[in-house]
Write a structure and sequence with these properties.
The complex is a heterodimer.
Chain A: E1 3-12, E2 15-25, E3 30-35, H1 41-48, E4 56-61, E5 64-65, E6 76-79, H2 91-102, H3 107-116, H4 132-144, E7 150-154, H5 162-177, E8 181-186, H6 189-195, E9 198-203, E10 206-207, E11 211-212
Parallel strand pairs in A: 3-8, 3-9, 6-7, 7-8
Antiparallel strand pairs in A: 1-2, 1-4, 4-5, 9-10, 9-11
Chain B: H1 2-16, H2 19-32, H3 39-43, H4 45-50, H5 54-63, H6 67-76, H7 82-89, H8 91-96, H9 101-134, H10 144-150, H11 162-190, H12 194-215, H13 222-226, H14 240-262, H15 264-273, H16 298-309, H17 312-328, H18 339-347, H19 359-384, H20 388-391, H21 398-427, E1 435-438, E2 444-447, H22 450-476, H23 479-496, E3 526-529, E4 532-535, H24 541-565, H25 568-571
Antiparallel strand pairs in B: 1-2, 3-4
Helix pairs in contact in B: 1-9, 2-6, 2-9, 6-9, 6-11, 6-12, 9-11, 11-12, 11-14, 12-17, 16-21, 17-19, 17-21, 18-21, 18-22, 19-21, 19-22, 19-23, 21-22, 21-24, 22-23, 22-24
Classes of the chains: A alpha/beta, B mainly alpha.
Amino acid sequence: MYIELSHINKTYGRHQVLKDVSVSFARGQIHGIIGRNGSGKTQLFKTICGYVRPDSGLVMVNGRRIGKDAGYPDDMGLLIENPGFLGNYDGLFNLQMLAAMNTRLKKADLAQLMQRVGLGDALRVKVHQYSLGMKQRLGLAQALMNNPSLLILDEPFNGLDKSGVADLRGMLLSLKAEGKTILLASHNPYDIEILCDTIHEMDAGVLSSPQPG
Amino acid sequence: MTAMKDIWMQVLRGLKSKGFPAACALMTYSLIFVHTDARVFWTDPLSYFQVGDFSYHFFITFLYGIHQYAIPLAAALPLGFVFCDDEQTGFSRLCMGRMSRPPYLLHRTLAATILAMLAVSLPTLINTIFLYFITQGSVPLEGWLEAAAAGTYGWRASKDYFYVIVLEQMLRQAISAATFALIAIGLSALWRSRAFVLIASFSVSILADHLLGRFLGQEYTLSFLQALPLSAAQDAAAYLPRQAVVLAAAAAFCGACLVWRYLPWLERWRQRISPGPLPGHIFPAVPLLIPRPLRGTWLGRLAVDIRANLSVATLLPAAVIAAISLAMGFVVYRPAFTLGEALLDVFGGAAWVMPRVEFAAVGRWLLILLPATMGNAINVQREIGSRCLICLYRGRGWWLSKCLAAAAYALISTLVMFICVTLAALLAGGRELSVYMENEDGFITASASVTPLLLVLFAGHLVMLSQLQALIHFTFKSSNAGMIAVILPVIVTMLLYSGIYRPNPNLYIPFNWGMILRSELFSPLTETVGSETYPLCALAMPGVLFWQGALTALLFSLSAAAAGLIRHAQRAF
């Protein structure tokens, strides 16, 4: 298995957000997590990507224990909540800055990526002038930038218009065809059903057994 | 009725904000400030108030206080940020759908003005009542009432009519507060930044005082009008119309700012000329100049962090504040001066010859530290906030890179301020970088080495403070804590331990806060009285530079340790 979580518990104060979560995600598939707001989907993703340390339990990604062998999974792209872009710079420049941190991507590659997520006309527009959907697309672009083998996407359809949703669905399916592993959280069951190979339901910190998509 | 309800809700909003108690606290401090200079005030306050009657204590509170500096800030704090807050949170969009623009703007302006007057008047009233009761039966200090009666206060300066002076003084304070509230509101419509509103209100008050005093005379300055000295040339009532004119000017400024920001056709025009989100409005991007081999390495990440910190919104105030500080000094008004002397005037600190550092000197020194402190607070807050979601996992040493970027930002903002002061001094007629100073033989000679030393000492000081600020900000996850860690020790130690007549405590000021004027170059290290030798406030330059570097390294190491101990990724959400 590519990702394995065993007996994960996480509590904030008196509120237990993850309750004995044990789950495995196979490589090269799209895995969907569905659940109401506040059910613990985002906390689960943050635990997998190493942003939240569980009180107990084990997170293994690609054979490495997160929090021990590695701080964060290697080769990962991430879109969680509202990514903090620098509002007074344009979208392309924001991507350039992020790319310079851990890749050697050229400006042209990044422009192409922005084209791919539907921001071809907004390369030079400052991020504070972006709409919610445009910011979401830019968030996707930064997640895809390194061509990662693991993509963790929390509510990626938020703020997207009809064509944006359709484009993203197509993109996710093509990424799956390339062999990427995608974890996808949404509160919209339709998105999950048509895209995912396995579906888990999250409720009050408890993750259900997988259902086929 | 709806209008009154809306204004009342805005007043309540201000009363419930942290700004209102902060403004009251600031005003209270400014009112008791003058008393705190007397040691007996701390040891035996009752006996302190037994000398000097009510009129004496009332007069000195205003005549020697720090209202000039406190009122602009106290007026801005309760609701002066109203328009930038509404715009930033999107609350203005909710309001605009429910009422038209003129009442929206008018109600908030009125509420902010009322709150400013309240925030200034309430502590003044409490202080007055306190002084009245505590000075009952105290020994009068002869001469104060007589001087007031012979001067501006006339018939009011008697026991029977002193309440008129009290009421007039409160009116003056309230008008002054309203004036600065209107200026703050106008500024908040211009630029959506709380920091800008505070800094700009403070700067405008100092600049306006300076310009009015220079061009119209001392009796037209805001500080003069809000606290009349006993010997003013005219009757006290004659100055109220002047204050009303200043208030009207502030209202006009506020109105002009609101019109510029909110008048529909001007807004449409601004939108037309601004690069909107439409394709075709192309922005020329400043290139990210990172050599290709460095990309993807920690040096690349550091370069990105430094670049992310460099924004016009933080560097422009640095340039403006440096220019204002130069204008507040005295060097540029001399018939002949050098660029080095202008730089020394701004970045040299408080001169060692002052028996005690007055609040004006402390305020001016804080003003010059503020750009780097504010910039770093904004930058660190952004990096440990939502931006860390997309940056944390991209490489190791995330926090140390931010610390180095904060140090680099301190250096760059210092450079911006130096360049700005140099250019302004050049335009004002300054030439050559040397400083004229006394040599060992007592002759005045040009010294070329002082200016680079000044740059190194001040920059080193800001770098040291940037590391302290970053450490505290990160540890407590609070930008306020980071800023207080920088500002508070400077204020406290400068006020308490700066007198050359209190020799030993001067050693507790960390490297004299980077002030070259309080180093061995401008001050003797020791003073010999009879057979005893006392250390003075000056410190030896090599030692200062060494300890600055050592403390910076220590703070950086503590940051590294904190980054290892604190689970920031988890704490950030």
